[in-house]
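Collaborator request, handled under Task 6.
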Amino acid sequence: MLVLYLPNDLIVSCQALEDEPLHSSFIMSKMALAAYQGGAKGIRANSKTDIISIKKEVELPVIGIVKRNYVNSNVFITATSCEIDELLESGCEVIAMDSTNQPRPKETLENLVGYVRKHAPDIELMADISTVEEAKNAESLGFDYIGTTLYGYTHYTKGKKLYQKDFSFLKEIIKSVHTPVIAEGNVISPEMLKRSFELGTFATVVGGAITRPQDITKTFSSEALKAQI
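C-alpha cells returned to the collaborator:
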C-alpha cells in the first residue's frame, strides 16, 4: 500500500513575500509553530531558507515551493530545475510546481518530473493546476498529489474562485483523476474547509485566512466600515 507523506487533514501555508510585512524566515518558522499548535498537520512554505527554519521548529511534512519570476514566462512556482535543486537541499518532503499549460521558462514539466525522480526518488510531487486538462496531464506524468492552487490565477481562469457553485471545479477534478486531490485557493473559513473534505479531497491547504494578518485586518476593517454606514 502506498504511504503518503502528507496527512489527510489541514495543511497551513506559511508564506510572506519580500514586499509583505512578515517577510522573514524566523517569522515564518514561528508562524508554522503557531499553526502546528493550532492543529495543522502539514505546512506549505516558500524558499529554501524558510523551509530550513520551519523544519527546526516543527516536525510536520512540508510542501516546498520556490516562487521566482522569469521574463519569458508566467510560470513562477518552482519553474525550473534551479528551484528544484534549492528545494532538494531544504529538507521538504514534497515539492510543488506549476503544472499549468502556460509556456515554461526552460525545461518541460515532464523533464522536471523526471529530474526529481532521478535525483530524489523519495521526494513526492504536487501539481499546482488550474484546469481539468492540466490535472489529467499531471496524473499521466506521475504526480503524487494534484492541487487546485492555480485555479483563478492563470489568464484562462482569471476571476474564478474555487468555492464558486459549491466547489464545482473541485468536484470535477476529484471525479476526473485517481490521484489524491488537495484543495487550495481561497479556502477562507472553517465551513469551507469542512465542505472540501465532505466532497472527497485528500487534504486542504489554507493560507491567507490564517497567516496573512494584513489581509485578515482588511476584512475586519471593511466590515467595520459597513457597520458604520
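The cover message to the collaborator said: "The chain has one domain: 10-228. The chain is about 40% helix and 15% strand. Please let us know whether this matches your experimental observations."
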